[in-house]
Prior knowledge:
single chain, 3 helices
Amino acid sequence: MRRLTNLLTNPRRRIRSDESGFTLIELLVVLVIISILLAIAVPSYLGFKKRAEKHASNSNVRSSIPSTEAYYSDHETYAGMDLAALQAIDQGISSALVVTVTGGGAGYTLSFTQGGCTATGNGPGGTITNTCP
């Protein structure tokens, strides 16, 4: 019986006297692991962000082209075309779009900046170019 009592009280004594916590080495290992994960994740995130900004700026210019052509079909010129005129045709056009009429109404330039990326579309029938730092 006495032996059974010792078996039950010894673990209780050990638990009360044992100090719990992490050692300095364990904390350093955790910090090293977190640092390695961040070193991998941050450049990937920045790359994804830049590609998303580039595609978003291209998409905003590309989605505005049908409205510019609709404006031309209504007025038979691009002269007088501005952001408000395009938004009257399509309310989904972003208010950050920059519209410039070129050649006395014979052409246009659409420009949109998302983050650091600027997409520019020249028309009619031009291509969209993008500059990202």
